[in-house]
Design goal:
single chain, about 400 residues, mainly beta, Pectate Lyase C-like, 14-stranded parallel beta sheet, 12-stranded parallel beta sheet, 3 helices, about 45% strand
């Protein structure tokens, strides 16, 4: 009896610690937690799944069905794995005892967890084996949810946000998915931060079709086809992410008014590739040890500033009417070839070109001569090259 009481007290402590540590992110009012009554969670009852309690549930979905809004469903790991498909249609907290050992397995069928209610918090699980690429480990079609400190692997898509807003996805480990690590479709005002994404066959993080005003911050992405893929989106911020060993670090197309800043991109085939991309800020990034640091095609009116482009085979390349871009205050250093442009007209100013320069620096490119389709040598000028590299 004493052992059961001690274990239940430990569970209460875990839940309270979970609430306190994440109160700011979850928007929880800490004053509402009633520590004197161990049956009260955030605003309601704690329902237990697994374990040895007489009234504990045997399946997660049974507890979710019986829960009321504001209740907490706590899942023990000793009955794991739970071979279930969870549908959450009410505002509850779903908490696993240990994210490494509390496993929900979808057996390669459908979505493993489907969230249709607002204000759901889910944490502390390993979630694996959803169906094909049309399904996800966690699929969200609602707002103001928090998905954090989970492990997701062997899913088609690990976390899928669709027609949603104001969700927080943070501190998850995403491994070995076949299509998307984290996918946003027509999603607005969400935050994707501090996740570790690795070994995706296709995309680490993918923002698609009118997804806007999202924050993608501080994620670590490695060994993916595309680290971050931006497609037909606007007004998003991608900042302080670390992307390594991918085919392409960041891909952007048909998008505008985005900010890409403070990222570190290394050991890729293309660090950043942009096409039909405009009116955006690309600043304070580090591109190092890539085959191609930045490739820009048919993109205009972007500000490319204060980036460090170092030890790449190719630095910055602009082609196919990439016009009216401001390329200022960047550091080009120890690249096999720093820059090249073709059929593009841009402004270069105050860039550092590998050594102190006291006279204008000629930027060599080319211009197509028609009808011969011959690329004639052409040049632009950095009138005020920097005398020392920039420190970002």
């Amino acid at each position: 009896m004493k052992i059961k009481i001690k274990k239940k007290c430990m569970i209460i402590s875990i839940i309270i610690l979970f609430i306190v540590l994440n109160a700011n992110s979850l928007g929880v009012n800490i004053e509402k937690i009633n520590i004197k009554n161990p049956r009260i969670g955030l605003n309601g009852t704690i329902l237990y799944v697994g374990g040895s309690g007489e009234d504990n549930y045997t399946r997660i979905q049974y507890a979710v069905n019986d829960a009321n809004p504001g209740d907490t469903v706590f899942v023990y790991d000793d009955s794991s794995p739970y071979n279930e498909h969870i549908v959450i249609s009410k505002s509850i907290n779903l908490i696993g005892e240990d994210k490494n050992t509390t496993i929900i397995d979808g057996k390669k069928v459908g979505n493993v967890v489907y969230i249709s209610a607002d204000r759901v918090n889910i944490s502390g699980f390993t979630i694996r084996n959803c169906g094909t690429t049309a399904y996800a480990g966690i699929r969200v079609v609602s707002d103001f949810n928090n998905i954090f400190e989970n492990i997701l692997y062997e899913n088609g898509a690990c976390i899928w946000l669709e027609w949603v807003s104001h969700n927080n996805v943070f501190k998850n480990v995403v491994l070995g998915n076949t299509s998307y690590g984290i996918f946003l479709y027509q999603a607005q005002d969400n935050t994707i931060r501090d996740n570790h994404i690795e070994n995706s066959n296709k995309f680490g993080i993918y923002l698609f079709v009118k997804s806007k005003n999202n924050l993608v911050l501080g994620n670590i992405i490695s060994s993916c086809s595309d680290g971050i893929f931006i497609d037909d989106t606007s007004s998003n911020i991608y900042s302080n992410n670390t992307i390594t060993d991918c085919q392409v670090g960041i891909t952007g197309k048909r998008s505008n008014k985005n900010t890409i800043s403070g990222n570190i991109i290394s050991n890729t085939v293309i660090g950043m590739g942009l096409a039909d991309y405009s009116n955006s800020i690309i600043s304070n990034n580090i591109f190092k040890n890539n085959d191609q640091a930045i490739y820009i095609k048919s993109s205009s009116q972007n500000i490319i500033s204060y980036n460090i482009i170092e030890k790449n085979v190719k630095g910055l390349y602009l082609e196919f009417s990439s016009d009216d871009n401001e390329i200022v205050c960047n550091t080009f250093m120890k690249n096999v070839r720093n820059v090249f442009f073709a059929d593009s007209n841009n402004r270069w100013d105050q860039n550092y070109w590998g050594r102190p320069r006291y006279i204008p620096r000629i930027v060599v490119g080319g211009k197509t001569v028609m009808p011969l389709v011959y690329l004639m040598p052409w040049f632009e000028i950095d009138w005020h090259p920097a005398k020392e590299p920039y420190d970002i």
